Amino acid sequence: MTRKKLKNKHMKRIIIAGIIGVAIGIAGMLAFINFNHQPEKAMPDPLKSKILFSSTETEGYFFPTHDNLLIMDRTNAEMSEAFIVQIAPGKFTHRHIHDDTEQLFYILSGKGKLNLERTGRMETFELLPTNFVHVPRNCYHQTFCEGADTLRYLAIDCFPNGHNPAEPTWDDHARAVCKMNNWDYTEARRKKTK
User: Fold this and answer.
1) Which residues make beta-bridge pairs with 106?
2) Which helix (H) or strand (E) holds 24?
3) How far is 68 from 92, CA to CA, in rounded Å?
4) Which pLDDT value is given to residue 18?
5) 3-class DSSP state for residue 132?
6) Which pLDDT value is given to residue 126?
7) Rounded mean pLDDT of 97-111?
8) pLDDT tens digits, residue range 32-68?
9) Which of 34, 89, 105, 168 lies in disulfide reach of 133, CB 3.0 to 4.6 Å?
10) The CATH fold of domain 59-188
């Protein structure tokens, strides 16, 4: 073989190897994208989502420490949900933290206190009717009923980065809370009688 033919044959191999390398790279990139791609969450259509909710016709979750009465499930909105929290006299919520939501409370009735830990410091706030409370993300907090009457407040969870995909509904969240605290989910769904 002449030197020119050897050079052309060598160049063809280099070109073919380059094309194969690029094809493998593209296939690998597409496989990576496909494997890591999280499908877009179906957001509620604002033109079809429910607009008006009753604060008396709620879905109850009766935990050992407090009750949550669901008003609006997170599936109805892009970044929020709403419920009423009820804490009986002498009771309190479990100490907990949210990394996915900040919370807003509007105190409806009763008297209580909120312990909030941020920047390594514990703060205590008195809760009275008509108070409006903001609980930032990543802050441990706990709410106590301190009066003779049940402490009741409207709680609105706001998810700045969207809902937790592991808990797409309020019920999924309630199940996770029960599991984390060793509470019986079935018992939490039973309506309390006075």
Assistant:
1) 132, 154
2) helix 3-36
3) 13
4) 56
5) strand
6) 98
7) 96
8) 544 444 444 566 677 788 999 999 999 999 999 999 9
9) 105
10) Jelly Rolls (2.60.120)
User: What gap in Å lies between CA 113 and CA 63, rounded to an integer?
Assistant: 19
Q: How confident is the model at residue 194 (pLDDT cuts 50, 70, 90)?
A: very low
Is 41 within 8 Å of 135 (Cβ atoms)? no
**Which positions ≥6 away from 72 have C-beta within 8 Å?**
50, 53, 80, 81, 82, 83
Instruction: Tell me how far apart the alpha carbons of residues 35 and 37 are, in angstroms, rounded to a whole number.
Output: 6
What are the angstrom distances between the C-alpha of 180 and each of 3, 7, 18, 175, 186? 74, 69, 53, 9, 15
Structure tokens of 36? 């890591």
* Interatomic CA distance for residues 24 and 108, integer angstroms: 62
Q: What is the DSSP string of 40-96?
A: PP----TTTS-----SSS-EEEE-SS-EEEEEE-GGGSSSEEEEEEEE-TT-BPPPB
- Identify the DSSP state of 99: S
